[in-house]
Amino acid sequence: MATRRRVLGAGLSVAGVGLTGVSLLPALNARGASAAPAPGGAADAAVPLFAVEMPLVPVLAPVSTADGVDTYEMTMRTQAKEILPGVRTELRTFNGQFPGPTIKARRNRPVVIRQRNELDVDVSVHLHGASVPPADDGGPMDVIAPGAERQYTYPNKQPHAPLWYHDHAHHLEAENVYRGLHGSYLLTDDEEEALPLPTDEYDVLIAIRDAHFDTATGALQYQMGDRARTTLLVNGAPYPYFKVAARSYRLRLANHSNQRFLELRLEDDSDMTQIASDGGLLPRPHTTKAVYLTSGERADVVVDFSRYPVGTRLVLKNTGFGAVEDVSQVMRFDVARTAQDNSSVPDVLRKLPPLPQPTAERTVVLSMDEDGRPDPKAYIDGKLYDHARVDAHIRSGASEIWTVTNANTKVPHNFHMHLVQFRVLERQGAAPRPEEEGLKDTVRLMPGETVKLQATFDAYRGEYVYHCHMLDHSAMGMMATMKIG
């Protein structure tokens, strides 16, 4: 059976690290520079490639639909599951599932989720990419203590978008998400459903993340900035295969990793059609051979498997710089049957409203210690996160241009804003590429790179955070607070 072998320390370079995140912190590890496996771990063991079928993430059913509100109940609890063959891994889960169950929501139909914390750590559930009141945002200090519960209300007034939910308790968010506290929340509306895109069983979530296992015990190994997270999981399974029909599929790609960057392409380098990003459908479809996703980003693509004969096996690869053998293969598509296909991708997917006249401009600088010190810190505008400090005062209704710069010379970052979806105006002084022409909530920033974006703050008043969504970095302090009012 084919296997993926670990090649830790295989000459990975920090200077010029591309879009894989394999070596984001090789000299910045919070426990030293070597990131060695935990004692007793069989970290060089092989993990079978394409030995298990890709699970379909279950869709959660509401406990009530009364009065036009969909009400759900979730319990965060420890659950052991078999991920690697023959061993069980203890996870922090929503409803005992890994990843957490998918919620399907509809615009202008509110969702209420009652969350109970049966873990032994604080949690705070954030709906990433959502426009919600501050009390329901799942802020880093607004935690649910062990044994407690709370209710989150999501108005769903925004347009369709492939959102996701995850823990956000400060200093705990990186480990909690890594150990399993993440899931998808797919918001739709009439505009999206009116299009003849692939639907039902041909509309498939593919949530990708990495992990570092003690393969003797199955335990997830966690340390800040660990570069040994070299087992890729798809919907919770390592390197799975997925049986497809010879027709078009909508694949909802989501990067749920803490800090890994992905460059995804089909092994025959054939075309994919990107139709959506973080904030929903792009204005126009974009034909591409590769999809770039930093941690937290999402992208929907349509792949036409009818161009392959039944019996074809096609690998989805990760081909970014530094994608050593461990992480160069993600999953395999097995073309198993024929099927009728009445779907199509229109030339125009949506019309975004024109951007309003900007009312203010501000700059944001992301940085972190990259000199090899044993306990690196991460900053926004030279400051560590302080929940008692407001870093940006924003007038309600304002539409602002933010110029965000990665001041590091070695370490990549990305940038996420709560509450708002934004538009990318420029990248390094040039117009954004087609995949960044839609609505976004997370954007990549390679070393020395600057991105200019515009956001409009006209939904809710109150305090929200913005931060690097490489969660190990935000846990190190790369987060700040904006107050809208």
UniProtKB/TrEMBL annotation:
Alphabetically ordered keywords of this record: Metal-binding, Oxidoreductase
Pfam families documented for this protein: Cu-oxidase, Cu-oxidase_2, Cu-oxidase_3
EC number(s) from the headed UniProt entry: 1.16.3.4
Keyword hit for Oxidoreductase: yes
First-tier enzyme category under EC: oxidoreductase
Plastocyanin-like domain residues: 82-190, 233-312, 365-483
Annotated InterPro entries: Cu-oxidase-like_N, Cu-oxidase_2nd, Cu-oxidase_C, Cu-oxidase_fam, Cu_oxidase_Cu_BS, Cupredoxin, TAT_signal
Top-level lineage group: Bacteria
Catalysis: reaction(s): 4 Cu(+) + O2 + 4 H(+) = 4 Cu(2+) + 2 H2O
Family: Belongs to the multicopper oxidase family.
PANTHER family per the UniProt record, alphabetical: BILIRUBIN OXIDASE, CUPREDOXIN SUPERFAMILY PROTEIN
Subunit structure, as described in the record: Monomer.
Protein name (Swiss-Prot/TrEMBL): Multicopper oxidase CueO
